[in-house]
């Protein structure tokens, strides 16, 4: 994580998941920008299509969401801040601990209707996969 920038959580899920993220970062006194977002260019998007919520953590370093070092000669560890990286790892670990060590998920399981509608719209427009989503039966055990 670069010293410049702010942690960003892009949530494809429900307000309760967004609230959980805000709560964990707030308890750490760690600023974060939590956004509702749909991203077809992420590894978790196929799971969103099937109704599974997701959370994507990032740390853009420039206004407008830029990653100035990405895929350049500057994409090295010398442009990272170990202090910022440790803080982000710690906050993320606290979030994972809250989710993993509870008998019941601390957020609603699923994606709220409006966001799910956007997932479907974006999937039709942007997502390509050799399997037909209509023929994929995710309810089988």
TL;DR of this structure?
By secondary structure, the protein is α+β, with helices and mostly antiparallel strands. It has 4 helices and 3 strands; from the N terminus they run βαβαβαα.
Describe the protein in words.
Strand 1 (7-12), helix 1 (15-27) and strand 2 form a beta-alpha-beta unit. Helix 1 crosses helix 3 (82-100). The termini are far apart. Residues 137-141 have low confidence and may be disordered. Helix content is 36%, strand content 11%. It has a three-stranded mixed beta sheet with strand order 2-1-3. The longest helix is centred in the middle third of the chain and has 19 residues, at 82-100. It has 141 residues and is an alpha+beta fold. It is globular, with a radius of gyration of 17 Å. The chain has helices spanning 15-27, 45-49, 82-100, 113-126, and strands at residues 7-12, 32-36, 54-58.
Describe the SSE topology.
Elements: E1 7-12, H1 15-27, E2 32-36, H2 45-49, E3 54-58, H3 82-100, H4 113-126
Parallel strand pairs: 1-2
Antiparallel strand pairs: 1-3
């Amino acid at each position: 994580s670069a010293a410049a920038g702010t942690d960003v959580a892009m949530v494809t899920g429900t307000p309760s998941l967004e609230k959980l993220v805000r709560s964990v970062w707030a308890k750490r006194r760690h600023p974060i920008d939590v956004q509702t977002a749909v991203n077809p260019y992420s590894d978790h998007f196929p799971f969103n299509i099937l109704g599974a919520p997701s959370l994507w953590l990032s740390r853009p370093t420039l206004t407008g969401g830029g990653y100035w070092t990405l895929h350049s000669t500057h994409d090295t560890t010398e442009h990272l801040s170990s202090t910022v990286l440790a803080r982000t790892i710690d906050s993320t670990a606290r979030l994972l601990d809250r989710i993993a060590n509870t008998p019941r998920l601390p957020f609603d399981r699923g994606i709220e209707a409006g966001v799910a509608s956007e997932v479907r719209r974006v999937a039709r427009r942007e997502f390509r996969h050799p399997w037909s989503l209509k023929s994929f039966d995710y309810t089988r055990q």
